[in-house]
Amino acid sequence: MTGPVGTWARRIAELFDAHRLRLERAIARRTGDPQTAGDLAQDAFLRLARLPDGEAVQNPAGLLYVVADRIALDHCRAARRQRQREAGPPAEDLPAGAPGADAVVERTQTMARLRGAIDALPPKTREVFLLYHVEGLPYRAIGERLGISPRTVEYHLRTAIEQCRAHMKRRPLR
């Protein structure tokens, strides 16, 4: 076998020798199914081998892993669809996924109480609390923004939590 087809076939054989086990492990990790990984890896090699212009591929190993990943993803999707078909439609006596009216009212009241607790904090403590819990800034960034040390940030956060807890205990749900 000579010519482009023979050269491409040799490159595929070399890829197979060099990457088969690694590829099977990668597929097994992706699918969670080590028994099927060998078949899916073989499918990836076959798809690569069937490329009409395989010699033009700059990075055959990279393409192999991309193809294998797509095959594994397709396998996972097909398995999920099969499980859903086998499970059948959801039972009508299952509870609804949405919270009930009582839970919504209780959550709304709790959030209002929490907003009141945050609003009652001293201005600097409230600012530190919001920068940390709402904006997600780390202590150091908060300290730099406000011109205070990270330990002072920690102090304000501790104070804010204590004051919010006390506020919530003083104003129970009605």
Give the SSE map.
Blueprint: H1 3-31, H2 34-49, H3 60-87, H4 101-119, H5 123-133, H6 139-146, H7 150-170
What does this structure look like?
By secondary structure, the protein is mainly α. The chain has 2 domains: 85 residues; 58 residues, Winged helix-like DNA-binding domain superfamily/Winged helix DNA-binding domain (Arc Repressor Mutant, subunit A). 76% of the residues lie in helices and 0% in strands. Helix 2 packs across helix 3, helix 4 packs across helix 7 and helix 5 crosses helix 7. It is elongated. The chain starts with a helix and ends with a helix. The relative contact order is 0.08. The model has no long low-confidence stretch (mean pLDDT 86).
Task: Give the gist of this structure.
With 174 residues, the protein is mostly helical. It folds into two domains: 3-87; 113-170, Arc Repressor Mutant, subunit A (Orthogonal Bundle).
